[in-house]
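TA notes, week 10

Several of you asked for a full example with nothing omitted. So below is the full record: structure tokens for the whole chain, then the designed sequence directly under it. When grading your own attempts, check the secondary structure regions first.
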């Protein structure tokens, strides 16, 4: 019970940090979008998918691979071997990250030539971040493997603060020299934030675990082989979405026509709508980060009952977190976008609202994929998520080629939601077949969906009045309370599950008051 509480509490702390970091990110993007405009945000989003792709190739699989291997060794009581493994992982991360940074710098000119030459300086500014993030990822994997998510939580917050402070300051200073220089300043903020994060992680590791042990190359070979075997399928799985976004950055603008208006449309899609879709998905990724080493530990101990319990709770939490966002984005996308991006103009705002409504269901598709992927990785089914996401993104690519020339950026949005939902549905079916949890899953999902529909009633009734920040926030709070009350009344979560969550004392008291006992 204690371990379960630790896993959910750790996931809650990390999720809270992610939410705070995303709020900071939204607070950052509001003035940034107003400063750069739609075209400037388009340039920013040209660079970011390429950066994300190189980041995935170099270090995207590092935290999961390290956490899986470290948690296996710790579960067996082999702490010293875990330290030696981490030493090997850190050196490999240094080599891979440096290669990724140099590759991004080398690709800066040819890629920016295909997108927009104004993006060239941005690529140079963000290229050192590939090396830094890869090293940070190794540290995060170490701490996660020890079921300690606080360093990752803290770094999420500091990362957001530094990115916002440095990025906005440099963008403002450099804007008079041209839009490309302002984008350069914003992307330099990303590099600076990752450098601070690396310093924080290094200090925490030094305080808690001392120096990284020096290990001879002969002793490191088995660890490097094990790490490589784990990383390869994780890299393939992790690179699919960034690769898809990179292809989009080249394909969509060219299908729309290489004009400033096409860049602005792409900026609305990727700079305004995508972050709102990704917010709840990132929360579910936090849950996945916490559950993977728990699955590894239960697998090592052969505790099937604990695996099934954690699967059940994690899936319920995923739908519990995702469905409110789907309802909100379907009913009131104009109010949500207006809350964050009021300075982009009414025409862009309405276009963004349409795209957000179309892609609302992507929240569930991507969230479901992420949590099931994390659980399958912990159960040593690492290849399945990669195959499923590859097939889904191939479908998305084909639909993008067909629909974008017909319907413009709306066609690209339709293609995206089809691919995202397909990935979620297929991995859902695969996992249900693997664990035989279909009856409980159907019941839980049905109850949570009903609670989401009930939550949507006050939003629907007040939608016409949500014309200011105060009214949007007030209606959001009311809808949230209605949703939480519905979840308690329908008893979606057991009392044992409420006890395992953050703020467990308050949640258990509410459950007793509503349901008795």
């Amino acid at each position: 019970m204690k371990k379960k509480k630790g896993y959910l509490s750790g996931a809650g702390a990390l999720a809270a940090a992610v939410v705070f970091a995303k709020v900071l990110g939204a607070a950052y993007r509001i003035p940034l979008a107003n400063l750069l405009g739609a075209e400037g945000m388009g340039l920013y989003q040209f660079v970011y998918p390429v950066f994300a792709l190189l980041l995935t190739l170099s270090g995207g699989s590092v935290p999961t691979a390290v956490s899986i291997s470290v948690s296996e060794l710790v579960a067996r009581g082999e702490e010293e071997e875990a330290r030696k493994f981490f030493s090997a992982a850190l050196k490999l991360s240094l080599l891979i990250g440096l290669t990724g940074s140099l590759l991004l710098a080398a690709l800066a000119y040819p890629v920016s030539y295909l997108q927009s030459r104004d993006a060239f300086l941005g690529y140079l500014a963000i290229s050192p971040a590939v090396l830094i993030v890869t090293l940070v990822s190794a540290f995060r994997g170490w701490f996660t493997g020890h079921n300690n998510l606080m360093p990752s939580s803290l770094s999420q917050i500091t990362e957001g603060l530094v990115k916002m402070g440095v990025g906005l300051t440099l963008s403002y200073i450099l804007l008079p020299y041209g839009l490309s220089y302002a984008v350069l300043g914003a992307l330099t903020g990303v590099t600076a934030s990752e450098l601070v994060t690396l310093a924080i992680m290094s200090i925490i590791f030094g305080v808690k675990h001392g120096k990284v042990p020096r290990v001879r190359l002969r002793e490191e070979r088995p660890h490097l082989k094990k790490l490589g075997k784990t990383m390869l399928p994780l890299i393939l799985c992790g690179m699919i979405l960034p690769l898809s976004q990179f292809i989009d950055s080249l394909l969509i603008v060219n299908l729309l026509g290489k004009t400033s208006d096409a860049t602005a449309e792409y900026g609305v899609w990727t700079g305004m709508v995508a972050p709102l879709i990704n917010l709840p998905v990132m929360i579910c990724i936090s849950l996945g980060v916490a559950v993977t080493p728990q699955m590894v530990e239960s697998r090592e101990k052969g505790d099937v009952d604990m695996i099934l319990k954690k699967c059940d709770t994690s899936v319920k939490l995923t739908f519990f977190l995702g469905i409110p966002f789907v309802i909100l984005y379907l009913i009131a996308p104009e109010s949500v976008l207006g809350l964050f991006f009021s300075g982009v103009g009414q025409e862009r705002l309405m276009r963004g609202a349409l795209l957000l409504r179309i892609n609302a269901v992507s929240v569930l598709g991507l969230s479901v994929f992420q949590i099931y992927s994390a659980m399958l990785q912990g159960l040593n089914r690492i290849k399945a998520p990669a195959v499923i996401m590859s097939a889904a993104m191939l479908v998305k690519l084909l639909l993008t080629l067909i629909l974008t020339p017909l319907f413009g950026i709306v066609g690209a949005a339709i293609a995206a939601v089809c691919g995202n939902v397909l990935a979620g549905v297929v991995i859902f079916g695969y996992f249900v077949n693997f664990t035989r949890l279909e009856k409980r899953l159907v019941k839980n999902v049905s109850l949570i969906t009903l609670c989401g529909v009930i939550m949507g009633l006050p939003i629907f009734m007040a939608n016409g009045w949500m014309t200011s920040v105060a009214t949007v926030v007030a209606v959001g709070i009311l809808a949230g309370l209605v949703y939480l009350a519905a979840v308690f009344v329908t008893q979606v979560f057991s009392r044992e599950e409420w006890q395992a969550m953050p703020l467990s004392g308050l949640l258990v008291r509410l459950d007793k008051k509503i349901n008795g006992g």
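The CA atoms of residues 20 and 157 lie 7 Å apart. Use that as a sanity check on your answer.
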